[in-house]
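Weekly puzzle thread! Below is a chain. First person to post its structure in token form gets bragging rights.
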Amino acid sequence: MSITMGTTLASLVTNKRRVSALKSLGIVTVGDALTYYPFRVTEPVPLRAIREAMDEGKNPLVATDVPRWEDQVGISRIVNRRVLEFEVLPTPAQVLGDLPLSDQAQEIVAYSRDEIRACLYGQDDRLLVIVGPCSVHDPAAALDYARRLAALKDELGGELLIVMRVYFEKPRTTVGWKGLINDPDIDGSCNIKKGLLLARRTLLGVLDAGLATATEFLEPTSPQYISDAVSWGAIGARNTESQVHRQLASGMSMPIGFKNATDGSIKAPTDSCFASAQQHTFFGIDHMGRAAVVKTLGNPDCHVVLRGSSSGPNYDAESVANAMKLIREEMPVESAAAHGLIVDCSHGNSGKDEHRQVEVVRNIASRIAEGEEGITGIMMESFIEGGSQKPAPLAELTYGQSITDKCLSWQITEALLRELAQAVGKRRWK
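Winning reply:
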């Protein structure tokens, strides 16, 4: 039997109840089935009813008459009882096709990944410095910062390998603003489609400025949309023991840093480095957004990031030495993890205090100058203006100031980067 777009489903599906349910949705032919998208609430009246119900603490699925496909096909009692709606996103292939990397950007990504690997394995004696905003909330300010950093990168490139933090996803201890991808308007509207496109455009802008980028991977599906523009990735402290993120890292095309757990455990990120270096098979999505079985080759370029813990900092020389001892007991001697680690100067190592972050950076600079081994790179949280402010819609915010963790100001950042470069220069004479 020849099947065309005009073939009726009734001629193919023997279950009459199912045919009738599909017909109630306007799905009669094969063509209808292939082009059907679930109902999306966009009309003002249903939207207002939903929001009012939620503001009153009610379940809008019960308190409103908004039609849903689950109701229409008669399975509302058992499916998606806690899901209000599904919004169909463009596929990764569509997004990458509409917003492609330029030839120059591809060259920056490929070359910088190799440079980062060389630093991690000790083949390049420069210090890897991952620096930038705690999170990107204003793409214009992020690109302003990128242009400033690019000029400094060229000046200090002999001593420092500078990569810009361009973070779009923020893990929350409880609740809060989840980052640009999740809520680009910072108003709770959670326009994820807009956020994804904004994030990608921001990465392209940073690459156009001549900088390699670093980001944290939180959602297991978002890398399909942005990872081709990223040179270094992080897995956060709250996810370092997650099998999902270890599997994800095993298939990534760039080095991945696993942060120590929030309780300070070094065993957790070390296990992650080991696991991520292995082959994995798991559920995921392909470039067309379809559910798929993903088979990976393993990522040998994973390493540990010391970020402090709930018990206090762990950037001191003894902590670094102890961490490297534990890592080398588990990881192969030729691995990136066994060669050295990255120190995050913010978070638990500074108590999220930008003034203490300065002290941490200078402490590490002095130790690098003295020739201390084990530290291959550092992370710094920095923006145009120092400190932080509470999240709010963009028009209400101070330009270039973080809405998550407190950041170093640009002026202080510039001074610290020069000090780090001088420290690397001194180490070379040891």
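Puzzle host: Confirmed. Bonus trivia for everyone else. Strands lie at 127-132, 160-165, 212-216, 232-235, 256-259, 280-285, 291-296, 303-306, 341-344, 375-381.
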